[in-house]
Queue: 2 jobs
Job 1
Amino acid sequence: MAEQLVDRADIEGVTCATGGSLFNDQDCTITEGLSDYTANLDQIDLRLGYLFNPKSNFNAYLSWRYRDRNGAGIEEGHSLLSFGIEMSLFDRYEDF
């Protein structure tokens, strides 16, 4: 679980250059009420695989990733399912 600080411009619609513009007098520093701008990020990764040939490292895998972000007025959840095959064709050791 990670805690993120959401940009003030995303929530209040305030145009704010946090990169340090010399010509911008808008103060982007938030000192009180940080709980209104804090979001929690949860991530779950699950990967299952099967090794067909250990010599060439040929394997197939199925992977699932879920990310959930809530707080600061944002409720999001994303899921990603992926699959594939991997193989090491050449074993070259050139570290003398």
Job 2
Amino acid sequence: MMLLSFALAFIGFIALSLSMKRHHTQMWQHKKLTDRQVLWWRFVGYFSLIGSGILCMLSQGAVIGGVLWLGVLSAGALLQTMMLSHWPQLIVRLGIVFFVTGVLATI
């Protein structure tokens, strides 16, 4: 369940960065970002981050889960920042791989 929580946090940060014009053009050079896409990416990002927190709190309780969630958020943000700086085209593929791996590990 922790791997899925990390994957959701990572996907949430990817989605929030995709809602910014600069990072969107950095990942996909030829696509324009519309206002509707900005709202969609923000919704997905916040929903994924909240889902990550809920999974942490369900697995470890409210107090330990909250602290664990902060660690998961920190690790996800660090990985997303490093990937966005060095390999921006691979970041979405890595998010998909993490999500599939997290779901399979939870089952």
